[in-house]
Write a structure and sequence with these properties.
single chain; 203 residues; mainly beta; 8-stranded antiparallel beta sheet; 12 strands; 38% strand; globular
Length: 203
């Protein structure tokens, strides 16, 4: 059966035909469709980070990277069983964590991320412990939001350098803890507001 003539372009980019006819795509249309479907499966890019309800400053180009440890298990053997272990127990559950280099070294940003005080002249005095805990949202270029319900952020040490080859940074360790309700993290789909769990209202 031949398709009826169309006054517009091909069906892939023109008027949709009536049943029983189907969409007809050009190679370019089909490739674009496949790429769109595949990209929807990927989480990538870091566009914004919120900590304790406020946006924090720049990280370096690496963003945040996984830094957790895998669970360790111990096999249990019995003398009477010769062909393998009779059981396995978890000796250490491991942990979930991220690491990243904070390059926004303004006093205001440092106070927001790891604590300390900012005075009227914009000076920053670090706290005794470079550590702060709260909800963290990592907003991705793909549209996803990774929410850490209880992120323990620790400033490990300085990174980068004070030279013409780079900038000074603070190396952060972000440990994913359980909050009071037992929640640790959640990945929200593109367009979903983590605060409500519903589609975000467009401004």
């Amino acid at each position: 059966m031949s398709l009826p003539a169309s006054s517009g372009s091909r069906y892939g980019s023109g008027v949709r035909p009536s049943p029983p006819f189907c969409w007809e795509y050009s190679d370019g249309d089909l490739l674009t469709l496949k790429l769109k479907i595949n990209m929807d499966k990927l989480i990538f890019g870091m566009s914004q980070v919120k900590f304790c309800g406020v946006e924090i400053g720049w990280f370096d180009e690496q963003g945040v990277t996984p830094a957790g440890t895998a669970a360790t298990q111990v096999d249990i053997y019995a003398a009477q069983v010769k062909d393998g272990p009779v059981g396995t127990i978890t000796s250490n559950p491991g942990k979930k964590a991220f690491t990243g280099n904070l390059i926004d070294m303004s006093a205001e940003n440092l106070a927001k991320v790891i604590g300390g005080t900012k005075d009227d002249q914009g000076n920053w005095e670090p706290p005794e412990k470079w550590e702060k805990t709260g909800v963290m949202d990592i907003v991705c270029d793909s549209g996803h939001t990774i929410r850490l319900y209880k992120a323990k952020v620790t400033g490990n040490d300085f990174g980068g350098g004070v030279n013409s080859q780079g900038v000074l940074s603070i190396q952060l360790n972000i440990e994913v803890m359980k909050d009071e309700s037992g929640k640790r993290m959640k990945i929200f789909a593109p367009g979903i507001d983590p605060e409500t769990g519903q589609p975000a209202e467009k401004a």
